[in-house]
UniProtKB/TrEMBL annotation, chain A:
InterPro entries: MetI-like, MetI-like_sf
Location in or out of the cell: Cell inner membrane; Cell membrane
Natural source organism: Bradyrhizobium barranii subsp. apii
Protein's UniProt name: ABC transporter permease
Gene Ontology CC: plasma membrane
PROSITE patterns: ABC_TM1 (PS50928)
GO BP annotations listed: transmembrane transport
Topology term for the membrane: Multi-pass membrane protein
Length: 276, 420
């Protein structure tokens, strides 16, 4: 099917052309909004319209010199990194356990562990709001970190679990038979092999926390506002070009995450290819 | 390997070895469970517990009980046919005086006002004008004089309905139902019956977005599954980049594009297609466009992996047997994509049902989905019972659909394994 000169009939050729045309339009639909917002952040004017009156970095300057925006960036980083670390520990342990555990309850436990992804954000947020308020965890970093960890851990369990599935358990057995303690075998044999899976899990976890806004809306005090939360109020009130600068910064982070993930995937495929 | 060992061993060592193996396996299982346990406990505290708490709030009804305990006790045996007896009136007067002293009248007033509009006024005016506990035998007359509403049966059935400790009131309200004065379930008054509309709207928006995603996603998934891997990997970036871009960035981008002086309107004006800017945002159109943009990757990815698993040999076989391309596509290719279509559509629909941020930012008042009302009643008006009841309905819908999705994906994995 990959060789399209083999499309013999005219109707097939028309269908294929239509597929390409429609797909191109959809690709434009997907990418254009993200590309359209970027140049506006370099505008020297204060209206979000084209053509740009001139180029400047004044909105980035505005972002960097605004304690509100910088504080939100700092908060996003703190909460993102902390919940990534916590979800990595909990998620990796659980994935290791689930890989070995044999029980008819396993699908049920797995469904429970993955459910934070499916349950609508507002429901989790409302539940946490009621639950955390009496114990003083609303308006605190700890509360947000715990909540984001709950949302991010399923992604760690999925990615690390997928890596463990392709992991050859004989290697762990070999290490044990050669006298390695379970901890030593984990550190020297298992860990290096599942590291790419762990890294992907960490990226997913960080992206989940970094992009989350519903729980932050309910639970964060003015001190804990994150970057998406600040953008939310910015969009609600009035869209100033500073928001587009924030958007470019957020998108840059996403691109870095995506590129790292793609790099890991390619490396993994190469390794698989060389071992086969 | 164990079998070989066992047959090699003589009968006397066979049993202990079997037992030893079984014991080793059991230790392994316990260790495995111990590794999963921290996450389970964590999720119990940060996820399952809070949601269970929310569900409990949907039926919890103890405010009136706490503020008017004597009244509730006096009404316990009241049949609700006539006005309650003098004892209930006296108990109410005593409760109101006590609650006035502790400042808790407002708590009961708020709860009762949900059930009967104007109850707040009845209770506060009575609290303000009741000088002291009426002389024995005159409570009925005194209260009736302060506010004639105490001579109405509805006032008293409202209190009895709210006597707790659990209630179906909020869940009924979430479905536009209520209990009438005789305790029968009836339709709520039109000014309170808005939630069926909201649920229908949520359903309709989710359905439109799912359909749009399917129409736009199908050709793209087909293209990506058909192209050679090098080129399809490159094009996949167009799907993955938006997938990884912040929801807020994408929503913001659509506002910039679609606003009245935005890029789209300016371009159309420049091209001479329109004279007046079109209204493209803060309405249903804007919500559907922005949500489709956000959810499209969730459709394309499952469709793509489904199509990738379809062997091109089937289409060649159909062609060699003389099927025209359209027939081959409709009869051979399309049926094999159905599991992917089902999985993608369900996923998009489930995610769309719970959407909050995008409609809140690019929708008008008439485009807000159920999540908006849950958030509104939680943070603005603090009607936590109703917020929880609406949440319970949304959660139920999501869980049911997720179960179907789970079955669908599981089935797919099985057939996928068989094909290989």
């Amino acid at each position: 099917m990959s060789d399209h000169s083999s499309l013999r009939t005219p109707s097939q050729r028309i269908a294929w052309t239509a597929t390409i045309v429609i797909s191109t339009l959809v690709f434009i639909f997907l990418i254009a909004p993200i590309l359209a917002i970027m140049p506006l952040s370099f505008s020297s004017g204060s209206y979000l319209t084209y053509p740009l009156p001139g180029l400047s970095l004044r909105w980035y300057d505005d972002f960097i010199n605004s304690p509100r925006w910088m504080n939100s960036l700092k908060n996003s980083m703190i909460i993102g990194v902390a919940s990534t670390l916590l979800s990595m520990v909990l998620g990796t342990l659980a994935a290791l356990g689930l890989a070995q555990w044999k029980s008819r309850f396993k699908p049920l436990v797995l469904a429970f562990v993955l459910s934070p992804v499916v349950v609508p954000g507002v429901i989790t947020a409302v539940g946490l709001y009621f639950f955390f308020a009496p114990i003083g965890l609303t308006g605190s970093y700890l509360g947000l970190i715990l909540a984001h960890t709950a949302l991010a851990t399923p992604f760690v369990v999925i990615t690390v679990g997928a890596t463990l599935q392709s992991f050859d358990t004989n290697l762990a057995r070999a290490a044990a038979s050669l006298g390695a303690s379970p901890l030593y075998a984990f550190r020297r044999v298992i860990l290096p092999l599942i590291l790419p899976g762990l890294a992907s899990g960490a990226l997913f976890a960080f992206a989940t926390s970094f992009d989350e806004v519903v729980i932050v809306l309910f639970m964060a005090g003015p001190e804990q506002r994150t970057l998406p939360r600040e953008m939310f109020s910015g969009i609600r009130e009035n869209i100033s070009p500073t928001i587009t600068a924030a958007a470019v910064i957020l998108t840059t982070v996403s691109v870095i995450l995506l590129a790292t993930l793609e790099g890991l995937r390619r490396r993994n495929e190469r390794l698989k290819g060389s071992s086969a | 390997m164990t079998d070989a060992l066992l047959t090699g061993a003589n009968a006397s060592t066979e049993v202990p070895l079997k037992r030893r193996l079984r014991r080793a396996e059991r230790t392994r299982q316990v260790k495995a469970l111990a590794l999963v346990l921290p996450l389970l406990l964590f999720l119990l505290f940060t996820f399952a517990g809070p949601i269970a708490g929310m569900l409990w709030r949907a039926v919890d009804d103890r405010e009136v009980r706490q503020v008017l305990p004597q009244t509730i006790a006096a009404l316990a045996n009241w049949d609700g046919r006539d006005l309650p007896d003098e004892k209930a009136f006296a108990a109410l007067a005593s409760d109101i005086l006590a609650a006035r002293a502790t400042g808790t009248i407002a708590i009961a007033a708020k709860r009762l006002n949900y059930a009967l509009n104007g109850f707040r006024t009845i209770l506060t005016s009575t609290s303000r004008n009741l000088k002291a506990q009426p002389e024995p035998g005159t409570a009925r007359e005194t209260l009736g004089k302060i506010n004639p509403a105490w001579r109405e049966r509805t006032t008293w059935t409202t209190i009895k309905d709210a006597s707790g400790p659990m209630t179906g009131f909020y869940l009924l309200a979430a479905l536009d139902l209520t209990r009438n004065v005789d305790g029968a379930i009836v339709a709520a008054s039109p000014d309170q019956a808005i939630y069926r509309d909201v649920f229908a709207r949520t359903f309709l928006i989710s359905l439109s977005v799912t359909a749009l995603c399917l129409i736009l996603g199908f050709p793209v998934a087909y293209l990506l599954a058909t192209l050679p891997p090098g080129r399809s990997n490159l094009l996949m970036i167009f799907v993955l980049l938006p997938f990884w871009t912040s929801l807020l960035v994408r929503t913001c981008a659509w506002i910039v594009l679609l606003q009245s002086k935005g890029v789209v309107n300016d371009s159309l004006h420049w091209l001479g297609i329109i004279d007046e800017p079109l209204r493209l945002i803060y309405n249903r159109f804007g919500v559907c466009v922005a949500m489709t943009h956000v959810l499209l990757p969730f459709m394309i990815l499952p469709l793509y992996s489904g199509m990738k698993a379809i062997s091109p040999a089937y289409m060649r076989a159909a062609a060699s047997l003389g099927a025209p391309p359209v027939t081959a596509f409709l009869r051979i290719y399309l049926p094999q994509t159905l599991p992917g279509i089902g999985a993608g559509s369900l996923l998009v629909f489930i995610l769309a049902l719970g959407y909050y941020i995008t409609p809140a930012l690019v929708g008008g008042a008439a485009d807000q989905m159920i999540s908006y009302f849950i958030a509104l009643y939680t943070t603005e008006t603090a009607n936590w019972g109703l917020a929880s009841a609406l949440g319970a309905v949304l959660l139920l819908a999501t869980v049911l659909l997720a179960l179907v999705y789970g079955k669908l994906v599981q089935g797919q994995q099985v057939t996928g394994g068989m094909k290989n």
